[in-house]
């Protein structure tokens, strides 16, 4: 009976592999699965016949699979495992005495001779040896070191920020995410322990949208931390103890049409004309999910009613269309030269009648409009006259700005016009400014330069990250004011921030064609010489936990339209890689301005994009909630779009890991020094498996002058410390929720250095929600 059941299992596997393998051959894919299916069927037949040759045939199947797998992927354990795991387990099953004895024969004298285990045993042993060897290898790892010497002694960190403080989202106006503190070093970081923990009380609710996330980086001014929460609470904490000083609730309400429910930070301002200690002499500006900007007294959290409309600036002013929930502010504005400069997030792919992406500068004290820059009408920046409106759906900036007050420039990372995947009917101005970095004059809002990172964007390749400013030593030894702009497609643009011209070369490369009839594609696309863009996917890169879901992914891969980076969306479905999740996203990169190096977290997840004709889109349901994944309706456009990660039948990525790295690059030379797998599957699987596969993440890094980089972000719930020079992981701290925010560092009066991260989870990557603020310091 045992042999019969085994034969049936082998026959079913053979039919599944053979049928799927033939389909894959028709699609132009590998012949292996069909051949393996035939091997299983022959083995099953011999098992039914109780012939010992079954073990020999299966041994040949194992050896053939081993040779094929090494030929396809080398000695990468995470790719070898799915190819051979089931096959080896079944080989061990066939070696059981209960199977072998039943496959033997009896002599004329009645003596039993079980089938020989030697050929199959040797094949299994060879596979186990290869598996063991591959576990010690990582052919995708890039080992190296960043230069350790300082490239300059005249370091410009931007702004006048004391070493122990963190005044803006990226610490200073330059957005470097670099702390000049040195108490924590690679030698002692392993002794970090929790100093204090605070819970905000703002937790994810049952009626929240899926994209409810906690992405805040707190500010530290004097002895106080300032932060916001996803539902727009503003909170002040004692920096030494984490004790709450005050809390303000903006009462921004709930709306299922919001695509995002988050807050990345607040903005601090000290009025130089105010008497110290007077009401609202120091302010915190809170952006909200219902398109308001609220001025609060930094001392007690009370509303500063002298600003705008009794303390509140209404950002929907000037919009031709104003559907509730479609426009909000998720990132902190910047304040410079008496102006508060504000962007806004516009829902992706909801409607052709949404709010404008206008960038506006208001008087920081009164809220009066000073200038407005609308990328759909970029030449007129004088305040919009009453009764007129900004350009509907013009490209918006939902991320964080940087500025250089000496150059009088503010740097804006821009998205594209929605619908993201439909490029017809875009104006000349929209084509010019979509998916670009724009430098605006702080005084007037006029464009000083623009650098586009994607032409005719059909992929939602917004510039998502705050541009990072630093000075880079040129070949002549003189400092060059530079801007580092990470992009979703993995390029790192290193530009002269005075002109937008490349410091590290940028070239144009041919791009795929084949857009739908109503649209077109750009013939070329830009790419930086410093790029983390991955090589194109092939069917060899398809993955699964087993050979079965790997086969399903290979079939899906061959069915999708894919011609490499910038394959246009299609009616049959296209593979978009890098996907719109981004190689880099709003977490940006961190730079050390002394060593002139960067540290970042490139992430690799393929997405699919399928256009849906208007007459095939169902009516909107009453319980639908905002999301960037699934069906994006594009009301008013001829097509909606169905999009999401490219996943297999078990809900894991179809492409092989690693899906996430930590990486370091030299900004003077444009050379990538190292790339290491980052993160484990501990919180991705039902069992807490600590396998270091290299997992996706969203969030940002932070560097300290002590030579340590800190990063949460990965979809396992940890904050980690790395040696900036080598990228080696030095320490990790288990978090009570997902750490999809950017950490920061500060010091208190006695010199103690803290590292702080907010752990609240991220809706779109499925990490555990929470409301934790956690500070670490070195053990005594």
Explain briefly what this protein structure is:
The chain is α+β, with helices and mostly antiparallel strands and 780 residues long. The protein has 8 helices and 42 strands.
Characterization of the model:
The protein is α+β, with helices and mostly antiparallel strands and 780 residues long. Helix content is 16%, strand content 26%. β24 (479-486) and β25 (492-496) form a beta hairpin. The protein is globular.
Helices, strands, pairings?
Blueprint: H1 2-26, H2 32-48, H3 53-73, H4 77-94, H5 97-100, E1 105-106, E2 112-113, H6 118-134, E3 178-179, E4 192-199, E5 219-221, E6 224-228, E7 233-238, E8 244-249, E9 267-270, E10 282-287, E11 292-297, E12 312-314, E13 327-328, E14 334-336, E15 339-342, E16 345-346, E17 359-363, E18 369-373, E19 402-404, E20 409-413, H7 428-433, E21 436-441, E22 447-452, E23 468-473, E24 479-486, E25 492-496, E26 506-510, E27 524-528, H8 547-559, E28 574-576, E29 590-592, E30 597-600, E31 607-613, E32 630-632, E33 639-645, E34 661-666, E35 671-677, E36 701-704, E37 708-711, E38 718-723, E39 729-734, E40 744-747, E41 753-759, E42 772-778
Parallel strand pairs: 3-36
Antiparallel strand pairs: 1-2, 4-42, 5-6, 6-7, 7-8, 9-10, 10-11, 11-12, 13-16, 14-15, 15-17, 17-18, 19-20, 20-21, 21-22, 23-24, 24-25, 26-27, 28-31, 29-30, 30-34, 31-33, 32-33, 34-35, 36-37, 37-38, 38-39, 40-41, 41-42
List keywords for this structure.
alpha+beta
Low-pLDDT stretches:
none
Q: How large, in whole angstroms, is the Cα Rg?
A: 29 Å
Strand order of the largest sheet: 3-36-37-38-39
Assembly type of the chains comes to: single chain
Shape: globular
**How many distinct beta strands?**
42
pLDDT averaged residue by residue: 94
Query: What is the number of helical segments per DSSP (H or I, 4+ residues)?
Result: 8
Major pleated sheet: 5 strands, mixed
Distance between the termini: 67 Å
Q: Could you estimate the helical fraction of the residues in percent?
A: 10-25%
């Amino acid at each position: 009976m045992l042999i019969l059941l085994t034969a049936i299992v082998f026959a079913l596997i053979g039919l599944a592999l053979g049928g799927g393998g033939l389909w894959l051959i028709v699609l132009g894919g590998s012949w292996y699965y069909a051949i393996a299916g035939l091997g299983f069927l022959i083995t099953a037949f011999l098992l039914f016949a109780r012939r010992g040759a079954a073990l020999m045939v299966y041994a040949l199947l194992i050896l053939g699979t081993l040779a094929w797998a090494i030929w396809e992927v080398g000695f990468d354990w995470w790719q070898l495992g799915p190819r051979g795991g089931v096959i080896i387990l079944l080989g061990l099953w066939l070696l059981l005495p209960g199977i072998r004895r039943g496959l033997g024969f009896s002599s004329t004298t009645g003596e039993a001779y079980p089938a020989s285990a030697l050929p199959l045993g040797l094949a299994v042993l060879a596979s186990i040896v290869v598996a063991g060897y591959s576990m010690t290898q990582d052919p995708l790892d890039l080992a190296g070191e960043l230069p350790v010497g300082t490239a300059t002694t005249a370091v410009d960190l931007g702004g006048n920020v004391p070493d122990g403080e963190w005044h803006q989202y990226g610490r200073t106006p330059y957005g470097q995410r670099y702390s000049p503190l040195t108490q924590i070093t690679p030698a002692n970081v392993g002794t970090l322990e929790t100093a204090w923990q605070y819970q905000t009380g703002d937790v994810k609710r049952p009626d929240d949208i899926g994209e409810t996330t906690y992405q805040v980086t707190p500010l530290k001014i004097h002895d106080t931390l300032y932060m916001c929460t996803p539902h727009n609470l503003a909170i002040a904490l004692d920096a030494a103890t984490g004790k709450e000083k005050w809390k303000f609730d903006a009462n921004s309400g709930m709306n299922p049409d919001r695509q995002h429910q988050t807050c990345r930070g607040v903005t601090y301002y000290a009025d130089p004309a105010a008497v110290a200690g007077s009401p609202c002499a120091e302010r915190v500006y809170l952006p909200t999910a219902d398109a308001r900007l609220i001025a609060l007294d930094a001392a007690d959290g009370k509303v500063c009613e002298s600003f705008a409309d009794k303390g509140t600036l209404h950002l929907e002013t000037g919009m031709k269309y104003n559907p509730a929930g479609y426009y909000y502010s998720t990132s902190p504005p910047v304040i410079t030269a008496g102006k508060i400069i504000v962007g806004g997030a516009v829902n992706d792919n909801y409607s052709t009648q949404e709010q404008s992406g206008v960038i506006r500068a208001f008087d920081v004290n009164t809220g009066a409009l000073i200038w407005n820059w609308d990328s759909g009408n970029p030449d007129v920046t004088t305040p919009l006259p009453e009764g007129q409106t900004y350009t509907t759906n013009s490209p918006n900036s939902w991320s964080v700005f940087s500025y250089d007050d000496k150059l009088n420039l503010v740097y804006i990372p821009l998205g594209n016009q929605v619908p993201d995947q439909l490029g017809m009917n875009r104006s000349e101005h929209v084509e010019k400014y979509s998916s670009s970095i724009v430098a605006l004059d702080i005084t007037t809002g006029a464009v000083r330069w623009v650098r586009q990172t994607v032409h005719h964007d059909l992929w939602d390749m917004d510039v998502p990250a705050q541009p990072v400013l630093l000075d880079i030593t040129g070949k002549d030894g003189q400092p060059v004011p530079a801007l580092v702009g990470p992009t979703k497609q993995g390029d790192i643009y290193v530009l002269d921030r005075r002109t937008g011209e490349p410091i590290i070369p940028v070239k144009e490369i041919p791009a795929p064609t084949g857009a739908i009839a109503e649209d077109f594609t750009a013939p070329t696309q830009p790419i930086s010489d410093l790029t983390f863009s991955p090589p194109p996917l092939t069917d060899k890169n398809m993955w699964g936990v087993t050979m079965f879901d790997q086969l399903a992914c290979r079939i899906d891969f061959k069915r999708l339209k894919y011609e490499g980076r910038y394959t246009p969306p299609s009616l049959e479905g296209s593979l978009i890689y890098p996907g719109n999740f981004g190689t880099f996203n709003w977490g940006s990169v961190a730079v050390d301005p002394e060593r002139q190096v960067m540290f970042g977290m490139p992430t690799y997840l393929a997405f699919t994009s399928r256009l849906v004709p208007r007459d095939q889109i169902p009516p909107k349901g009453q319980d639908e909630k905002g999301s960037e994944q699934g069906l994006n309706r594009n009301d008013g456009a001829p097509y909606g779009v169905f999009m999401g990660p490219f996943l297999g039948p078990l809900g894991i990525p179809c492409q092989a890991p690693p899906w996430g790295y930590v990486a370091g690059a030299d900004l003077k030379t444009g050379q990538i020094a190292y790339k290491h797998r980052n993160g484990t599957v501990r919180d991705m699987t039902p069992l807490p498996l600590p396998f270091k596969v290299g997992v996706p993440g969203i969030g940002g890094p932070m560097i300290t002058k002590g030579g340590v980089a800190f990063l949460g972000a990965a979809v396992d719930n940890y904050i980690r410390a790395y040696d900036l020079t080598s990228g080696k992981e030095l320490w990790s701290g288990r978090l009570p929720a997902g750490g999809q925010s950017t950490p920061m560092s500060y010091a208190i009066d006695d010199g103690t250095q803290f590292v702080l991260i907010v752990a609240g989870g991220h809706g779109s990557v499925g990490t555990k929600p929470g409301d934790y603020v956690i500070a670490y310091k070195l053990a005594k």
